[in-house]
Write a structure and sequence with these properties.
There is one protein chain. Helices cover about 25% and strands about 35% of the residues. By secondary structure, it is α+β, with helices and mostly antiparallel strands. The chain folds into two domains: about 1-220, P-loop containing nucleotide triphosphate hydrolases (Rossmann fold); about 225-335, no CATH class. The longest helix is centred in the middle third of the chain and has 18 residues, at about 165-180. It is globular. About 35% of the residues are buried. The mean pLDDT is about 90.
């Protein structure tokens, strides 16, 4: 399958990608997740052959793709703006790549009908693409990418312009289509909800490097660093200092965080994560208190901000301005190194 080996790339004298290496297995969908400027779209363009790395290799089944032009790699690439041809109708847009392969007309017609059905757009075959909604255009763009039977699919922020409800619907559809096609895919996004909903594996990019890799559940449960936990919005991050093995002194007292795989010595500075969800039936190990500064309703719970900017979610709304006492379970506290 696809293998990326120590890719390096600079932009305007600044290092953009630093020794990036990973591989994709058959039928696997990976998400390149990171903030704007982290290098994820540049990496995708390098895989596609649209940009050349300063060093490193892109290989497919062991074959170096350095000398292979874009149109011969048989990779499908879908952009945020869809890049549909406005002068062609739906079926002609989808057929374009097949015609470039000089396939017989009857084969093109059959394949266009197949992918139109796959994206639930059969009744729009003759419709001008400019008459379609954003979600319909997105389906046509996906069908056009799927039509030539690509051996790898690549998506560059394809849902950035869609509203939340439509995005959720299309993500469900895209996940099903990818699983049915068994085609490996790279999905580039800055939106963690998209990445976690779609990917089999997530690669988090920060300052040109992969700082965390794993399944969505692994990354969510074990972020591994303060930056990852902050980027994903996993909870409150406190600075602390190691008193002894397993004990961290913070401004809120001494904690004994679980799941610490790092090697520490007394005096080391560390970060710990306190997950925000607090429930009455949690087994209380630690106590924390603060003045309630703000309360808002969020995802069927109450999002409570304390005066020191710690945020927790509770099943019942406390009074703004009052003192809040929280009983924290040790299972909600993790060491981030």
């Amino acid at each position: 399958m696809l293998e990326i080996v120590e890719i390096n790339k600079s932009y305007q004298g600044e290092s953009l990608l630093k020794n990036i290496s990973f591989s994709i297995e058959e039928a696997e969908t990976i998400a390149l997740l990171g903030a704007s400027g982290s290098g994820k779209s540049t990496l995708l363009r390098i895989v596609a052959g649209l940009e050349v790395p300063e060093s490193g290799l892109v290989t497919w089944n062991g074959e170096d793709l350095s000398g292979i032009p874009v149109h011969q790699r048989n990779f499908g690439l879908m952009f945020q703006d869809y890049a549909l041809f406005p002068f062609l109708n739906v079926e002609d847009n989808i057929a374009f790549g097949l015609k470039m392969k000089n396939l017989p007309q009857h084969e093109i017609k059959l394949r266009v009908a197949e992918v139109l059905a796959q994206v639930d757009m059969t009744k729009f075959a003759r419709r001008p693409v400019n008459d379609l909604s954003g979600g319909e255009q997105q389906r046509v763009a996906l069908a056009r990418v799927l039509a030539p039977w690509p051996r790898l699919l690549m998506f560059d922020e394809p849902m950035g312009a869609l509203d939340r409800t439509l995005k959720e619907t299309l993500l469900d559809e895209l996940r099903l289509i990818l699983h049915q096609s068994h085609t490996p895919a790279i999905y580039v996004t800055h939106d963690q909800e998209e990445a976690f909903a779609l990917a089999d594996r997530i690669l988090l990019l920060y300052e040109g490097q992969i700082v965390r890799s794993g399944t969505p559940a692994d990354v969510w449960n074990q972020p591994g660093s303060a930056w990852v936990a902050s980027f994903l919005g996993l909870g409150n991050i406190l600075s602390g200092r190691i008193l002894s093995i397993g004990q961290v002194q913070t401004a809120y007292g001494i904690f004994r965080p679980l799941n610490c795989d790092h090697q520490h010595q007394a005096g080391d500075e560390v970060s710990i994560l306190i997950r925000p969800d607090v429930d009455e039936n949690d087994s209380a190990t630690y106590n924390l208190e603060g003045i309630v500064r703000d309360v808002n309703f969020y995802n069927n719970r109450y999002r409570v901000t304390l005066d020191d900017n710690l945020v927790f979610t509770l099943p019942v709304a406390p009074e703004v301005g009052g003192k809040l006492h929280l009983n924290l379970s040790e299972t909600k506290i993790q060491c981030l190194g």
